[in-house]
UniProtKB/TrEMBL annotation:
<feature type="site" description="Important for substrate specificity">
    <location>
        <position position="220"/>
    </location>
</feature>
<comment type="similarity">
    <text>Belongs to the PNP/MTAP phosphorylase family. MTAP subfamily.</text>
</comment>
<dbReference type="Pfam" id="PF01048">
    <property type="entry name" value="PNP_UDP_1"/>
</dbReference>
<feature type="binding site">
    <location>
        <begin position="53"/>
        <end position="54"/>
    </location>
    <ligand>
        <name>phosphate</name>
    </ligand>
</feature>
<comment type="pathway">
    <text>Purine metabolism; purine nucleoside salvage.</text>
</comment>
<keyword id="KW-0808">Transferase</keyword>
<feature type="site" description="Important for substrate specificity">
    <location>
        <position position="166"/>
    </location>
</feature>
<comment type="subunit">
    <text>Homohexamer. Dimer of a homotrimer.</text>
</comment>
<dbReference type="InterPro" id="IPR000845">
    <property type="entry name" value="Nucleoside_phosphorylase_d"/>
</dbReference>
<feature type="binding site">
    <location>
        <position position="12"/>
    </location>
    <ligand>
        <name>phosphate</name>
    </ligand>
</feature>
<feature type="domain" description="Nucleoside phosphorylase">
    <location>
        <begin position="5"/>
        <end position="242"/>
    </location>
</feature>
<feature type="binding site">
    <location>
        <position position="184"/>
    </location>
    <ligand>
        <name>substrate</name>
    </ligand>
</feature>
<comment type="function">
    <text>Purine nucleoside phosphorylase involved in purine salvage.</text>
</comment>
<dbReference type="GO" id="GO:0016757">
    <property type="term" value="F:glycosyltransferase activity"/>
</dbReference>
<keyword id="KW-0328">Glycosyltransferase</keyword>
<dbReference type="InterPro" id="IPR010044">
    <property type="entry name" value="MTAP"/>
</dbReference>
<dbReference type="InterPro" id="IPR035994">
    <property type="entry name" value="Nucleoside_phosphorylase_sf"/>
</dbReference>
Amino acid sequence: MSRARLAVIGGTGFEDPSILGRPRETTTITTRLGAATVSLYALDGVTVAYLSRHGPGHSVPPHRIDYRANIAALAALGVQRVVATAAVGSLRRELPPGTVVVADQFLDFTRQRPVTFFEDDAVVHTDFSEPYCPQIRAALVATIRQQGLHVQETGCYVGMEGPRYETPAEVRALAALGGDVVGMTGLPEAVLAREAGICYAVVAVVTNLGAGLSASSLSHQEVVAVMDERRPRLLRAILQALASLPEARGCPCAAAPGRGLVASML
């Protein structure tokens, strides 16, 4: 099996890996926790793995994605750094559609998904003082600005179970708790990546105002339209950010206490 140190997890609007051209290899990686299909690309002499979170044709809804299998597959591939994309709703009018948020905090309100690799007799407590990799975040902010996109360099991502959208009351409550954007797929993905010792950052694209902040109702078509418009520049920014990172990881992500235990599960 080929190896890759860098990876992109494509969310809504990024389901089709052909946006990167012709893959060098597409493989299904099977681990003890499940299987995931990953495409490998040679970009400027560097191998980059691409995983479509929702599967081909956006066929898997948020609450049924096998997040553990996805992260385990990337870990088995040797991935050390991941940038994920996410379509999100805004909890604040000052973050209008089209804004790109490079989140630095999260609130997890998912409730039915496996949230950790550590079950049975494993007792591991992972630090989340910096939930997203600061090295990748800094690189992303710089490259997204170079692409001329409106970027918010900090923000709190709120993870909800889905697949329904939030109510106006929930939008008000989540904003009052400190949330900035809300989505259905960023968690437990970020948690699992840290447990596996993988550097992880999310590029959250605001596709709509949350319920109650806009006069119109929410629709998936609205989400897709914004992502389609932003996709080319975002993809360039993500790849530039990954390519700009030094090989040595100067961040807390790789020091996750359970990294070795996760490796033994693959």
